[in-house]
Amino acid sequence: MKNLKKERATVLLLDGLTDPGNLGAVLRSCDLFDLDLLVLPTRRSAKINGTALKASAGAGVYVSYAEVNNLARAIRELKEHDFWVYGADVEGEPVWSVKFPPRVALLLGSEGGGLGRLTSEHCDQMVTIPTGGHIDSLNVSVAAGILLYELRRRSVSPV
User: Fold this and answer.
1) Which of 23, 43, 57, 126 has its CB surrounded by the most CB atoms within 10 Å?
2) Residue 33 belongs to a domain with what CATH number?
């Protein structure tokens, strides 16, 4: 995680995402919204492979990523480097009302299981994307795209 020395940085951590197609869609958003680092667990996680790269429409080759043995430890390390960690959860604070600091780490879980207990305990705050339909969650790749867009929107000055 040594390439995160910038004053303003965004990291995305994926907890339990096992579908390579979804990972590919996340990779596409990571590139489009200029993510600094994607963090994946080495176990119980989709890999950046041919399927994921194809689903990313080629964007995956431009995304910096790290595989870690222990996601909770990676979160602690990010906090030691002045990152504020936000977990995505339906019970969180609406994303539009959160004042994000310059160094943000977003933690997203799988569609089926959400965030793991151990990783969610390390979050500083939970955020949600308010919705109005009958179901209560978005596909993880859609949620990643919306959250990364919101962070990018706030970090770019209007011309």
Assistant:
1) 23
2) 3.40.1280.10
The mean pLDDT of the chain is 91
For strand 9-15 and strand 103-109, is the pairing parallel, antiparallel, or unpaired?
parallel
Q: What is the domain range of residue 52?
A: 9-155
56: left (phi over 0), alpha (psi -120 to 50) or beta: alpha
Residue 1 domain-assigned (yes or no) = no
Residue 3 covered by a domain: no
59 and 31 Cβ atoms separated by less than 8 Å: yes
d(CA 79, CA 98) in angstroms, rounded, equals: 18
Q: What is the DSSP code (8-state) at residue 2?
A: T
On whether the pTM is more than 0.90, the answer is yes
